[in-house]
């Protein structure tokens, strides 16, 4: 270290100490294992996923739990617009019981979790229903597959219904991540169907 610093003439020089704390031979298996670890915690959505195992997923890497259900009587027809409030979290429970929040449509929740952005409008998001879950859009934009699968499982529900979708990065932002979402990050979305805003 001393010899390196003596020879270095640039002000940008740096020495990093690196500690490997975990490794994975298969990143998807590692993510699935982390998800199941979270499900065993009684504070994770008040135990809603308690006992879930890797092979209990609705589809590979996707877990869904209805927190409460308000029946709608029928599935939403294609081109229907519904409105939702949502929160998105990283599945990182070292500090936060339900994961570190990175996005929400609710202003007070954003402020409480230190992610408030004054340049943004906080209001229920408009969801345009479609023939397939992969074609569902939010405020005109496409969505990651795990989010649309969560919505798809709420197809015959009315305002007041809440559900949680937990999914690995293949159904989220994959190897590239997005903004504050790192690569290979399992995600958690809590969604509530609400009435159309006034």
Molecular structure report:
The chain is an alpha+beta fold and 198 residues long. 17% of the residues lie in helices and 22% in strands. It has four helices and eight strands. It has helices at 2-7, 27-39, 107-112, 145-152, and strands at residues 62-68, 81-90, 100-104, 125-128, 137-138, 141-142, 162-167, 187-194. Strands 1, 2, 3, 4, 5, 6, 7 and 8 form an eight-stranded antiparallel beta sheet that branches. Strand 4 and strand 5 (137-138) form a beta hairpin. The radius of gyration is 20 Å and the shape is globular. The N and C termini lie far apart (64 Å).
Mean pLDDT: 89
Number of helices: 4
Quaternary state, please? Answer: single chain
Distance between the termini: 64 Å
Helix content range: 10-25%
Largest sheet: 8 strands, antiparallel
Counting DSSP E segments of at least 2 residues, the number of strands comes to: 8
Series of secondary-structure elements, N-terminal to C-terminal: HHEEEHEEEHEE
Percentage of residues in DSSP E strands: 15-25%
Q: Given the C-alpha coordinates, what overall shape results?
A: globular
Report the structural category: alpha+beta
Poorly predicted segments:
none
Rg measurement, Å: 20 Å
């Amino acid at each position: 270290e001393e010899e390196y610093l003596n020879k270095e003439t640039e002000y940008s020089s740096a020495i990093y100490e690196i500690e490997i704390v975990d490794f994975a031979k298969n990143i998807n298996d590692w993510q699935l294992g982390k998800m199941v670890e979270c499900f065993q915690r009684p504070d994770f959505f008040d135990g809603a996923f308690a006992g879930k195992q890797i092979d209990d997923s609705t589809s590979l890497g996707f877990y869904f739990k209805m927190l409460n259900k308000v029946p709608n009587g029928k599935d939403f027809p294609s081109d229907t617009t519904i409105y939702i409030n949502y929160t998105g979290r990283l599945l990182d429970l070292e500090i936060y019981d339900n994961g570190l929040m990175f996005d929400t449509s609710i202003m007070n929740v954003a402020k409480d979790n230190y992610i408030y952005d004054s340049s943004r409008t906080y209001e229920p998001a408009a969801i345009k229903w479609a023939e397939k879950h992969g074609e569902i859009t939010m405020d005109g934009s496409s969505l990651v597959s795990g989010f649309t699968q969560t919505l798809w499982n709420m197809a015959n529900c009315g305002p007041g219904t809440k559900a949680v979708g937990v999914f690995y990065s293949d159904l989220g932002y994959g190897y590239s991540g997005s903004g504050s979402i790192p690569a290979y990050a399992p995600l958690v979305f809590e969604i509530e169907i609400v009435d159309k805003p006034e």
